[in-house]
Design a protein that fits this description.
TIM Barrel; about 15% strand; binds NADP nicotinamide-adenine-dinucleotide phosphate; about 325 residues; alpha/beta
């Protein structure tokens, strides 16, 4: 698989590729369907066999699962057993009291909808997308346990859980013999916390871990630095609350330092950012969001590389 390496996901039987592909901002109705098809095909060639979705990915919500499902059905169904597919529920998906957060009612209904959109009988991982301060943790975990027991998901996962809550949730799942497979959280070179604490807790719990937005949504490629914002980039195109032109530039000083270190080391900044994460003890995979095949290829090339030298890691730590 062209240099891909696979890492054990905590103490489970599952191996995940060092680089996984998310379909958050690249599989919506406004994205080029041909590029989407090419991304899935190239990902499989590169050994990037883990595809991450959520009920609300698009836009509009549901569009990414729909598009991915159509592709699976029309072209990639023979590869289903080579793929590791996740989806999630936890953010607003539909109106009224049952389309958000963490009730059993919402999680079960949402997964049924996701399976329909993706034309699948089961997903490999079903995540609770974010903690719900109002619903008892027991109810949310029981929903995950029952979902796994129903066969609609092979494993349960959690996302964006603070360490103490993660430990409590893992204990409940373990007790029911449906151990949490992995934690999905944000972590990258310029946003190290709260990811680092979440990673440490995942290691303590013996679960896997996967870091999303490893390039800070593209900022760590250096493409927003000291120049006009690239016209087809996420910061300009989506102009979302998550990455707008102002946010894309707010870490310029740090990014410049990282780009300088990368240039000195002769490593492309994109790959340095991903390889730094892959050096964090216990991390299973980095979850990228490539929009073009060329971006996917550049990111996938970070896999299977030797650990970064100690002096390079120290330089990346200095002043961050
Ligand atoms: N659990 C959660 O709460 C949560 C939250 C967010 C994301 N996620 C997951 O994490 C995945 C990845 O998140 P992300 O999309 O923010 O990851 P990311 O890898 O930090 O950013 C991806 C974006 O960076 C740009 N990019 C990537 N490679 C590039 C390259 N070589 N050169 C120039 N630009 C490049 C592209 O954007 P443009 O070309 O459009 O600028 C691409 O869409 C999502 O798809 C989703 O599955 C989970």
């Amino acid at each position: 698989m062209e240099g891909m390496e696979y890492r054990r996901c905590g103490k489970s039987g599952v191996l995940l590729p060092e680089v996984s592909l998310g379909l958050w901002h690249n599989f919506g109705d406004g994205d080029d369907p041909a590029e989407g098809r090419a991304l899935v095909a190239r990902a499989l060639e590169l050994g990037v066999c883990h595809f991450d979705l959520a009920n609300n990915y698009g836009p509009p919500p549901g569009a990414a699962e729909e598009r991915f499902g159509n592709l699976l059905q029309s072209e990639f169904s023979a590869h289903r057993d080579e793929m590791f597919i996740s989806t999630k529920a936890g953010y607003l998906m539909w109106g009224g009291p049952y389309g958000d957060w963490g009730s059993r009612k919402y999680l079960v209904a949402s997964l049924n909808q996701s399976l329909k959109r993706m034309k699948l009988d089961y997903v490999d991982v079903f995540y609770h997308h974010r903690p719900d301060p109002e619903t008892p943790l027991e109810e949310t975990m029981q929903a995950l346990i029952d979902i796994v027991r129903s066969g609609k998901a092979l494993y349960a996962g959690l996302s964006n859980y603070p360490p103490e809550l993660y430990a409590q949730a893992c204990a409940m799942l373990r007790e029911a013999h449906v151990p949490c497979l992995l934690h999905q959280f944000r972590m990258n070179l310029i946003d190290r916390e709260p990811g680092a604490s979440r990673l440490a807790e995942a290691v303590r719990q013996g679960t896997g871990s996967i870091a999303f937005s490893p390039l800070a949504q593209g900022v760590l490629t250096g493409k927003y630095l000291n120049r006009a914002l690239p016209a087809d980039s996420r910061a300009v195109r989506d102009n979302s609350v998550f990455l707008n032109p102002e946010r894309a530039r707010q870490s310029d000083a740090k990014v410049q330092r990282i780009v300088d270190i990368a240039n000195q080391a002769g490593i492309p900044p994109t790959q340095l950012a991903l390889r730094w994460l892959l050096c964090q003890p216990g991390l299973t995979s980095v979850l990228i969001g490539a929009r073009r095949v060329s971006q996917l290829e550049e990111c996938a090339a970070a896999a299977g590389q030797p650990p970064l030298a100690t002096d390079l890691l120290q330089a990346l730590d200095a002043g961050m």
